[in-house]
Amino acid sequence: MARITVEDLKARKVAKGATPIVSLTAYTQPMAKFLDPHCDFLLVGDSLAMVIYGLETTRGVTIEIMCAHGRAVTRGAKQSLVVVDLPQGTYEDSTKQAVASAQRVIEETEAQAVKLEGGVEMADTVAAIVASGVPVLGHIGLLPQKAEHRGAFKIQGRGDEGARKVMADAKAIDEAGAFAMVVEGTVEPVARDLTEQVSIPTIGIGASPACDGQILVSDDMLGMFADFTPKFVKKYAQVGGDIERAVQAYAQDVRSGAFPSLEHCYGVEKK
Ligand code: KIV
Predict the structure, then answer these.
(1) What is the pLDDT of residue 232?
(2) pLDDT of residue 99
(3) Domain presence at residue 1
(4) Do residues 156 and 32 share a domain?
C-alpha cells in the first residue's frame, strides 16, 4: 500500500465531504505497527517525555531521543505519514538552527515531516524549513513546550484578545507554508472560526469536532498513562488495568510454582 503523502492530507481540507483526518502519537515500532493501518498520520510527539520518560512536561527531551523514537516508528509504519516533533531548544534560536534540526530529524528517522510549536513568532522558521524541502506540521493554541509545569497547561482562545491571538497564529502558520496544523486546547468557537479561515487542515486535540481531523496521545486514549487525564481525552481501553492484572497473575503463578509448567520447558520428554 502506498504511503499517505502531505499532498493527500492537504487535499482532505478542500475535498467536499472529506472524512476527518485520523492521527495518534506513536513512540515505538510495535505500537506503530498496531496504529498504522488505522491512521492517516502518526506523530512521534515530544509527549513521550511525559508518557515514556516520566518527566513533568514535554521540555527536557533531546533531539537524539526524538530521532531514536522517530526511527523506531518509521520502521513500523508502512502507510501512515510519520511526523516527528522538534523538541524544545532545537529550533527557536535562529532559522539556521531550525533548518539544521529539521534536516537532521528527517535524515536520521526517515520520517516525512516535522512539527514545531508556535504561531506568529515561528512563521519565518516554518517558512525556512519548508523552503529547505522539509514539510512542517504547525502547532498552535496550547503550547506544551512553553509550560514549565503541568499546572501551566491553559486552554487558549478565551475572550476577544485570546481569540484574536489564536486566529493570528493560525493565519501566520498557514501563510508560512505548513501542510496542516495541530490546534491544541482551544475553545470551540475559535477552533471553528480558524478552521473555516485557513487553507490547510486543522488537527484538533481538545479543540472540538470543528477541526478537519483529530489527534490524541495514544497512551491517554488506551488508558496506559494514569498520572493525569485531560477533559478532552476519551479512553477507548484500559490497557494499564490489563497490564496490572496480567502481572499479578504471573507473579502469583511464579510464587506458587504454577509457572513455568512442563509445556514451557525444553528437553522434556512428551508422555
Ligand atoms: O507531543 C505530542 O504528543 C503533541 C500532541 C499532543 C499533538 O504535540
Answers:
(1) 94
(2) 98
(3) no
(4) yes
Q: How many CB atoms lie within 10 A of CB 209?
A: 10
The residues that are catalytic are 184
The Å distance, Cα 16 to ligand 1 centre, comes to 28
In terms of domains, do 232 and 243 share one? no
33 contacts 2 by C-beta, under 8 angstroms: no
Q: Are residues 264 and 168 in the same domain?
A: no
In ligand 1, which atom is closest to the CA atom of 47? 1
Which residue among 182, 183, 211 has the greatest number of ligand 1 atoms within 8 angstroms of its CB, and so is best to mutate?
A: 182
Pull the grid cell for residue 175: 501563510
Measured from CB, residues less than 6 Å from any atom of ligand 1 are 25, 43, 45-47, 58, 85, 139, 182, 184, 205, 215, 217
How many domains, in total, are found in the chain?
A: 2
Q: In the chain, how long is the greatest CA-to-CA distance?
A: 79
How far away, in angstroms, is 51 Cα from ligand 1 center?
11
The answer to whether 34 touches 26, Cβ cutoff 8 Å, is no
Record the pTM.
Answer: 0.96
Domain coverage including residue 246: 239-271
Query: What is the predicted pLDDT for the residue at 173?
Result: 98
| 122 plus 255 within the same structural domain | no
pLDDT of res. 127: 98
pLDDT bracket for residue 17 (50, 70, 90)? confident
Q: Which amino acid is at 226?
A: A
DSSP-derived secondary structure letter, 22: E
**Least confident range of 38-42, 142-146, 152-156, 175-179:** 152-156
Whether residue 244 is found in the same domain as residue 189: no
What's the CATH code of the domain at 21? 3.20.20.60
pLDDT at residue 51 tops 90: yes
